[in-house]
What we know:
This protein is an alpha+beta fold. It has 5 helices and 14 strands. The protein is elongated and about 60 Å long.
Amino acid sequence: xxxxxxxxxxxxxxxxxxxxxxxxxxxxxxxxxxxxxxxxxxxxxxxxxxxxxxxxxxxxxxxxxxxxxxxxxxxxxxxxxxxxxxxxxxxxxxxxxxxxxxxxxxxxxxxxxxxxxxxxxxxxxxxxxxxxxxxxxxxxxxxxxxxxxxxxxxxxxxxxxxxxxxxxxxxxxxxxxxxxxxxxxxxxxxxxxxxxxxxxxxxxxxxxxxxxxxxxxxxxxxxxxxxxxxxxxxxxxxxxxxxxxxxxxxxxxxxxxxxxxxxxxxxxxxxxxxxxxxx
Length: 279
């Protein structure tokens, strides 16, 4: 009897072991299948949003429409015309002359014990206007990420309007000053700049949908924003002669009466008086 009981227990043990092993194998196969399906779902096609890097070899401007010739690393050239629907941007370096009223500027500023803001790396936005902000760094209470509209600037500081957060002066750390340019103005681009194109492949052809340009040379604010007075000084000599002639005529003219600077009263006096009636 004891032998029969022991044999029955042994049979049950083998059966449970076999069932457990089968369940484990089924679970393993299902997990592997699920993982493989998930991998296929997450994996993106090789040609989705492809990118092409190259250098701009030629720039053509027709009005406000720019066409760039981009040569990729393999020597293949492609013309890219910038359209309003394209994601286009220009980044580069500049100088402190870009701190001009009306432009947006951002920086990470440090608050001194005297409650003054100091910044050494700034980004000037040309053609784009990010939202004004003053955000305190949660891990460094004395550090602020700020962005505001330039209202004034001098050799030592730039004054920014942060909207509802007020107007504050940010002092420049001139020994380590860095001016970054962020723009969507295609006219700033010159041959030699690096370009990264993003697009899609259609019928074996790459169609750009976006372009980011990194300028090869730093920009000069005096070249980007020429002084109108400097233009006036370069007018033809004939214009200067006419101006000189007008000045000479004005010098030869009789001095104006202080009581009648526009000669109105004098004109009235010069009018002929009516003849006196005979008695």
